[in-house]
């Protein structure tokens, strides 16, 4: 007599929507851009001044928009207060709910201190409502010492380290997903975040009209190093699983071994990463090449950083946890899909535009006790800034 036991396994929908991809992407750009801005803001490196101005612009804009994507991913945004009413210190998500506001406040405060001298100068110029708004934002004519700005900068760096740790750990801690549950995921988040911010600063350098050659050179050098680091992490990650050193990595590779879609994704990722590293290495060896490949490298770097998070956070959820095979997922058009993705990028562009209109960030000296150039510097927000006013060093 034979008995057949039928097991019914429920099909669960995905838990994290594209909102999560947007959050992890923007928050990675936030904390990595702060690191890039640190030499000019905290250490006072003059040859890094133009890069720090662009990096601080990227940091503030992404830091302001990232929490919006996170709230949207809660499905019920108004329940965010539960994190504070019922804290759970053993949960990385709960820890992050306290770290994120601290990071936001520290970043905005740092930018405000860095931009105040330029805001005060604009307030004294005859620029209509823009001068009035600049005066309101500057909040008086008092001066802060550079020590205060450095202390705030160090506090912002500390919160950025916390953001780096929590965003990596809250995904890697999930044991139910072997593709997430690995120690290699957090450092890969960081490496691809650095890649993305290099691409963003390259684009902002061109779009803002600054076009600093020092910024292009510095970002391409960091980009090459980040690509090498990401390649080393990826190779070690694969060898870890192929040799069954780590159970979770081996299980992750087994779960996608028979999937043509995952093989195609791997080929695409490797191709994009290698192409980015090669182009960055070639471009950094000449000024003409840096100008020629700047747009391409910037967009490709952002693509690599964003697509890595899409694969990790979205494609991984299509792997069935309680049965064999894969679940289909198609990006919907509504707010939980394509419209939400476009909306967050649109909100980020809006933040950039508002800062561009009301904050003379190009004139930031990062010295709270030194005023920026007076009225003439603000005659036209759209006009390119001369290399001398940018603090660019030509060698």
UniProtKB/TrEMBL annotation:
TM stretches of this protein: 20-42, 54-72, 92-115, 148-168, 188-207, 219-239, 261-283, 292-313, 333-359
Superkingdom, natural source: Bacteria
Annotated membrane topology: Multi-pass membrane protein
A Pfam family: NrfD
Claim: Transmembrane helix is one of the keywords in the record: yes
PANTHER family reported in the protein's UniProt record: PROTEIN NRFD
Protein name: Polysulfide reductase NrfD
Organism of this sequence: Halomonas cibimaris
């Amino acid at each position: 007599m034979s008995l057949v036991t039928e097991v019914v396994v429920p099909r669960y929908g995905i838990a994290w929507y594209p909102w999560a991809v947007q959050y992890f992407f923007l928050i990675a750009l936030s904390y990595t851009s702060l690191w890039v801005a640190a030499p000019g803001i905290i250490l006072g490196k003059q040859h890094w001044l133009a890069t720090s101005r662009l990096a601080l612009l990227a940091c503030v804009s992404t830091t302001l928009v990232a929490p919006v994507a996170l709230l949207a991913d809660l499905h019920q945004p108004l329940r965010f207060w539960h994190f504070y009413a019922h804290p759970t210190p053993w949960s990385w998500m709960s820890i992050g709910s306290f770290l994120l506001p601290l990071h936001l406040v520290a970043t905005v405060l740092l930018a405000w201190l860095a931009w105040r001298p330029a805001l005060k100068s604009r307030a004294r110029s005859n620029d209509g409502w823009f001068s009035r708004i600049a005066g309101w934002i500057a909040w008086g004519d008092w001066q802060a010492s550079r020590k205060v700005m450095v202390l705030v900068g160090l506090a912002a760096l500390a919160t950025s380290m916390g953001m780096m740790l929590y965003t990596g750990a809250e995904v890697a801690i999930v044991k139910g997903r072997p593709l997430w549950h690995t120690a290699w995921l957090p450092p890969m988040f960081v490496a691809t975040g650095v890649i993305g911010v290099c691409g963003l600063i390259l684009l902002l350098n061109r779009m803002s009209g600054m076009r600093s050659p020092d910024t292009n050179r510095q970002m391409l050098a960091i980009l090459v190093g980040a690509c090498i680091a990401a390649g080393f992490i990826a190779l070690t990650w694969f060898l870890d699983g192929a040799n069954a050193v780590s159970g979770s990595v081996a299980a992750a590779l087994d779960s996608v071994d028979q999937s043509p879609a995952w093989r195609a994704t791997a080929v695409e990722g490797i191709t994009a990463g290698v192409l980015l590293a090669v182009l960055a290495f070639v471009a950094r060896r000449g000024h003409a090449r840096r100008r020629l490949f700047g747009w391409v490298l910037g967009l490709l770097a952002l693509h690599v950083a964003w697509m890595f998070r899409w694969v990790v956070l979205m494609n991984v959820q299509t792997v069935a946890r309680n049965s064999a095979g894969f679940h289909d997922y198609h990006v919907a058009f509504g707010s939980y899909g394509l419209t939400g993705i476009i909306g967050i990028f649109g909100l980020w562009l809006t933040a950039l535009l508002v800062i561009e209109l009301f904050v003379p960030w190009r004139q930031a000296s990062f010295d709270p006790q030194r005023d920026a150039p007076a009225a003439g510097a603000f005659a036209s927000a759209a006009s390119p800034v001369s290399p001398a006013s940018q603090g660019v060093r030509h060698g």
